[in-house]
Design goal:
Elements: H1 2-17, H2 21-42, H3 47-54, H4 58-61, H5 63-108, H6 112-129, H7 132-140, H8 143-174, H9 179-182, H10 185-198, H11 211-234, H12 239-261, H13 277-305, H14 310-335, H15 340-360, H16 367-394, H17 401-437, H18 443-464, H19 466-480
Helix pairs in contact: 2-5, 2-6, 2-7, 2-8, 2-10, 5-6, 5-10, 5-11, 5-17, 8-14, 11-12, 11-17, 13-14, 13-16, 13-17, 13-18, 13-19, 14-16, 15-16, 15-18, 15-19, 17-18
Length: 481
């Protein structure tokens, strides 16, 4: 009922604003999504400066990325309820207002805990903003024009991660790390103003939300991520760490049990029982871990090990971002023409090669080679993302596609949060261990040792991914046969 009412409202607004209305809507949601995607990645080049300012180590500063990704996961699950409750306009403007407030708090904060809380606020509201794009575009474009609209929208949004490192580096070197929080505010304000004018505003008070599920999931994520992050400093046998780890696992089990019985679940976990779909979910988690962890680690590696400035490290990552933007539509085109296993396997090989080459690199390695090796990783992710999603959803009936798509996105975000968390902790542990064994080594070599272990861990994770890929391929073959 809510979806039909929203569609009618879009139709009325289309008559008011004329044929260009669909582009007004697309531009609005694209600007909003571009803003939050830019904010998600631009801070990575500022991490070394933040570490110096607040005197924190790798196993602490990663919360700026981990907290954002985990909160974004929860925000995505709140989006459907918010749109039904407040209308598309109200939900979008409310979330964008919260994002602006969190960005201001982050940019002005003088305490690291407040800074992390601001990033959590950014992630929660960013998760509520992003899903609006798909819904809005599907509502205002006819079926035969949706592909074109999504292609334009996708290219616009993916430019955010492509330009974020260079922009962030220039801001850090020219002004301060605080500028990475402030720079997105004009675009956010413009998106909120456009949304107030062009998005439909009708909502319903009958909208319901599984608040218990939200609480269980949030508490489970917080406990699990905190326990992993605390292993290095507190030790495996610390009672608080063990309690948090056991509690996080227990809450996750309770969450799964609750979602299987509640009338309107946050996540339709029953689709994981479909043959092959669970393998696609695992692949999505692995891909998310690789994408977000490598995006987090690369600028730190270039600055702390190779001794580059924030601007230089940001520019080093621009070719990789552009390569991913270029290969993304090509991978989507190939998905309908080439076996899924071949495309995803090629992506896995590219990513593994990237991580192994970065781990094998020494401090004097020429910058152009580092650019190429980072580019390999983005090519790998770009080749993997469209076919994994398409293949996983192709295994299910059409009635389940909406909820199954949410599961795949959930897997990618959770994989990203865990990937950043584990990579940062491993890098810090390996660096400290190397420093103890080689106290006379320069600090750049100590940092490099930690990054080497983190890069190799990601490579091993992607080698493992060939197993769920094989199972997914078999499920597709059985369905075709």
């Amino acid at each position: 009922m809510a979806a039909a009412s929203q569609a009618r409202t879009y139709a009325v607004l289309g008559e008011r604003f004329g044929p260009r209305y669909k582009w007004y809507v697309s531009g609005t949601v694209m600007l909003g999504t571009f803003s939050v995607v830019l904010a998600a990645t631009i801070i990575n080049v500022a991490v070394p400066a933040i570490m110096t300012r607040f005197n924190v180590a790798q196993d602490q500063v990663h919360w700026l990325a981990t907290g954002f990704l985990a909160a974004m996961t929860v925000g995505m699950l709140l989006n459907a309820w918010a749109a039904a409750r407040f209308g598309s306009r109200g939900a979008f403007v409310l979330a964008m207002g919260g994002f602006i407030l969190a960005s201001l708090i982050g940019g002005l904060s003088g305490d690291f805990t407040v800074l992390v809380a601001a990033r959590v606020g950014q992630g929660l509201t960013a998760g509520m903003i992003q899903p609006h794009a798909l819904v809005a575009i599907f509502q205002v474009f006819p079926v035969h024009r949706r592909g074109q609209a999504m292609g334009i929208y996708g290219m616009g949004v993916i430019l955010g991660p492509a330009i974020a490192p260079a922009l962030g580096g220039v801001l850090v070197d020219s002004f301060s790390w605080r500028a990475t929080f402030i720079v997105v505010l004009p675009a956010c304000a413009a998106a909120a103003g456009l949304a107030w004018r062009f998005l439909p505003g009708r909502g319903t008070r009958r909208a319901s939300l599984d608040w218990l599920g939200v609480g269980l999931l949030s508490a489970s994520l917080l406990a699990l991520l905190w326990s992993i992050a605390s292993l290095h400093r507190r030790g495996v046998f610390d009672p608080m760490v063990d309690l948090a780890l056991a509690g996080g696992i227990g809450l996750a089990v309770v969450f799964v049990a609750w979602e299987r019985r509640v009338r309107e679940p946050l996540l339709e976990l029953r689709v994981l029982a479909s043959p092959g779909f669970a393998s696609g979910f695992v692949l999505s988690m692995v891909m998310g871990a690789g994408l977000f962890a490598s995006t987090y680690l690369a600028p730190l590696y270039f600055q702390q090990s190779a001794g580059m400035s924030a601007s230089a490290s940001g520019l080093m990552l621009v070719p990789a971002g552009l390569a991913m933007a270029f290969v993304f539509p090509i991978a989507g085109h190939l998905t309908d023409r080439v076996p899924i296993r071949s495309i995803v396997a090629a992506g896995l090989v590219f990513f593994v090669a990237s991580m192994v080459l970065l781990a094998a690199a020494e401090i004097p390695t020429a910058a152009p080679w580092l650019v190429v090796w980072a580019l390999f990783g983005r090519l790998g992710v770009g080749l993997m993302m469209p076919p994994i999603t398409t293949a996983s959803l192709s295994l299910l009936p059409e009635a389940q596609l909406d909820r199954a798509s949410g599961i795949i996105n959930f897997g990618r975000q959770i994989g990203g949060a865990l990937g950043v968390n584990l990579s940062a902790v491993l890098a810090q542990y390996a660096s400290d261990f190397y420093r103890l064994r080689h106290p006379a080594e320069p600090v750049e070599r100590v940092f490099e040792a930690g990054f080497d272990y983190a890069f190799m861990a990601l490579a091993l994770l992607f080698i493992f991914a060939f197993w769920p890929l094989q199972r997914l391929s078999r499920a597709i073959a059985r369905q075709a046969g």
